[in-house]
Specification:
Blueprint lengths: L5 E7 L12 E6 L5 H9 L17 E6 L3 E5 L10 H17 L3 E9 L6 H13 L3 E6 L6 H16 L8 E3 L8 H12 L2
Parallel strand pairs: 2-4, 2-5, 5-6, 6-7
Antiparallel strand pairs: 1-3, 3-4
The chain binds guanosine-5'-triphosphate and magnesium ion.
């Protein structure tokens, strides 16, 4: 898919205030600092489109972008940031839960996982939560450029083993680096495929 146009539309905390649910929507989520906003900028080839930061917790709202006038891309706030207060974590949980349950045009969620780390409970819990909710999702391993491909293979194998303990069917998995532009064609190709189904 060629990205002809990518524009920021709005930021919200409420599903009711999001753009009209008249186009397929793809949402990006994952632990704080995993590289959600960087991946969105890499996919759209617009450096400053989604705000990135080296300190976690940068994205706080549901951010809608319109791509090629035909589908929505959504940057969601991350989870699992230790310094967040209990109240703020509960607010996040409520907002995200409501979004997943009520956003009728939500087509697929991209769950981002840092390819450098062994499976983390917070990520497995989140994947299992999405699976139980019945929301279609795929897994995106990020920051491939930070280590050897052997290490990436071992992380992916460990996640595969863990997920097999609970699920018969495994989600589709992508390998990416925002830094080195790895995985761009694969993800955009997947979105195009789903959009034309
Ligand atoms: P929050 O919005 O805070 O939840 O973070 P986020 O998941 O949107 O992460 P963000 O894109 O802001 O990136 C966090 C940090 O990781 C930044 O310093 C990025 O430059 C860095 N980063 C993101 N993707 C990559 C990558 O593929 N390779 C490398 N080397 N660094 C990356
Ligand atoms: Mg972000």
């Amino acid at each position: 898919m060629i990205i002809k146009e990518a524009k920021f539309l709005m930021s919200n905390t409420k599903v009711e205030l999001c753009p009209a649910p008249d186009k397929p929507e793809y949402a990006f989520i994952g632990r704080s600092n995993v590289g959600k906003s960087s991946l969105i900028n890499m996919l759209t080839e617009q450096k400053g489109l989604a705000k990135t930061s080296s300190s976690p917790g940068k994205t706080q709202l549901i951010n809608h972008f319109l791509i090629n006038d035909s589908w929505y891309l959504v940057d969601l706030p991350g989870y699992g940031y230790a310094k967040v207060s209990k109240g703020a974590r509960e607010d996040w949980r409520k907002m995200i839960n409501y979004y997943f349950q009520k956003r009728e045009n939500l087509t697929c969620v991209f769950v981002l996982i840092d390819s450098r780390h062994e499976p983390m409970k917070v990520d497995l819990d989140f994947i299992n939560y999405l699976g139980n909710l019945g929301v279609p999702f795929v897994i995106v391993f990020t920051k491939l450029d930070k280590q050897s491909s052997i290490k990436t293979d071992s992380t992916i194998a460990a996640y595969t083993r863990k997920l097999r303990e609970t699920w018969d069917e495994l989600p589709r998995m992508f390998r990416t680096s925002a830094e080195k532009k790895i995985g761009r064609e694969e993800i955009l190709g997947f979105i195009e495929e789903v959009n034309t189904q």
